[in-house]
Amino acid sequence: MEDLKNQVKDLEHKEPEDTPLQTQEGQRIQKVEDNVRNLWDNFKQTNIRIMGVQEDEREQDIENILKEIVTENFPHLVKELDLQVQEVHRIPNKRNPKRTTPRQIIIKIPRAKDKERILKEARAKKVVTYKGAPI
């Protein structure tokens, strides 16, 4: 009788071991969570839209426009961030081609965190300038 009580106590105190199905399920859940994290990182847009820069800028100068704007308005960010530009282009005037306002510039940067820092500083400053003119 004493032996039976000891066996019952041993069974009660044993933690249940993961079965192979539970292990596979845990691995599958981890894989899905990793996939969701990667998708979320890809959904974060890394594009910065700049409006108000005159059309007389040449295409070679457009690539350096973000660095010039950041150095002019946020000199402390230049030291902290390593600004890299992947792609730069002006969007076409789809609505009214006769409109005299300059086309917007789309700049794609590799890291979403850099974009967030730049936009946070721009919102705090409220007026961002390029070559002395507000944009």
Automatic annotation (TrEMBL):
It holds the Pfam family Transposase_22. Residues 1-28 are annotated as: Disordered. Residues 46-135 form the L1 transposable element RRM domain. Residues 1-17 have a biased composition (Basic and acidic residues). Gene3D superfamilies: L1 transposable element, RRM domain (3.30.70.1820). InterPro entries: L1_RRM_dom, Transposase_22. Belongs to the transposase 22 family. This is L1 transposable element RRM domain-containing protein. It comes from Pipistrellus kuhlii.
